[in-house]
Please model this.
Amino acid sequence: MRGVVWFRRDLRLQDQPALTAACSACDEVIPLFVFDDPLLRSRQFGSSCVTFMVSCLAELADALAARRLALQWRQGNPIEEVIRFVADVKADAIYWNRDYEPTAVERDRKVQQALMTRGVAVHTFKDHVVFEAEEIRGSTGDPLQRYSAYRARWWTKWHAATPSLLPFPAKLRGQRAGSSFPQIALPTVEGLGYRTVPLSITPGEKDAQRRLRWFLDGAVHMYLEGRNLPAIDGTSKLSPHFRFGTLSLRTAVHAALGSLAAGSRRSRRDVLTWIDELIWREFFQQIVSAFPQVASGPFRNKAGLPKPRSAGAEWNRLYAAWCEGLTGYPLVDAGMRQLNQTGWMHNRMRMVVASFLIKDLRIDWQSGERYFMQQLIDADLAANNGNWQWAASTGTDSMPGYRVFNPLLQSRKFDPEGTYIRQYVPELSAVQTDRIHAPHLMNHEEQALAGCRMGTDYPLPIVDHRQAREEYLSLGKLQGTR
Model:
């Protein structure tokens, strides 16, 4: 029997359900990847994300070739290309791992329906999450809308039905597909309409495994503290690997819990806190799956939230300053420049810059969401949307709209020496530490000593945080701050 494995968000060989099943059932396996032309033309993603994806595919192609499997690829409308490819190679069956984004669900439904009418067996598998939305429900059977309740049931499900890791496909080395379907050179990033950019996170399955080992052997020891300090390498930076499936969540959770079982010096609280972050990611995936409307609008419209600033010259000026990291608030600017330069941003910084855009500048959260998707290596609809709606107080949590981050207090608390700021805002590198968080307070002599003239070498604050906060709260009849 000849089977096609349609790779999508699962660019690896280890613990790969669709590939494992195909190798077990089929005499001949043909791996396929489809470059989605409509999606690429939409510019929903940026060059960092596409560069990372193509690099992961190149490693996957090499790994498959070493096992006598030639990765095939097509480019165009994925529905049409998959149906045509299956017909061209006269496949008896197709295997893929499920995706939960609304457009992907509809795409897969159409492909499955068309292939089944042609007599092709369709086999789909759970992979992008540990538990699908239908597996974790409330007592009434409805989807859970609060993270705390979801987390509790997630752990209950884990202990009751711990998912096992799939072994490396034993039959993979014996496939005879290589001679029938020769290797085809992958398209370049430029050929897909983007530009190749340097990557701050190494792509591919091998580095995903290496990074996981590094994290569990080191940084996880102080994760509770380190995850909030952008100046240190204190987080796993595995989000792009989860996004493109070069590492499975099952593997990550098993490895983290296994490190505790080994009786090492790891802190149980630190490790479990990191797993909680993975559960957050899964929570947002099930929200998109169960409530697909969040992809295009708020989860809920809460009374009392201020209306965003109207479009116009002032909106354009403030938004451009935020995008370029020229707001006059060093921590905000460092975060945005890290994003623009590396395609990644520390999670604490994601919260800070999101709050600043929504609360201080009163710009709609969807504009920030779109910008992040276009810049991030780990651009993921569910995680990005969930986090932006959390910041905007339109998401699933019950927190009113008064969650306003003070950029000066955040800066002093989480980057006290200004190390992170100096790394990404070099014009402030010589500013003394007691002024680095609010350089606009420097007098002329201090500016001369630092070689940084405010308003010339570095912008003055584009808004006054205290005034902007009061205006935001008064518009929404809210109270409080963080």
Notes: The longest strand covers residues 28-36. The chain is about 50% helix and 5% strand. The beta strands are 2-7, 28-36, 72-76, 93-97, 121-125.
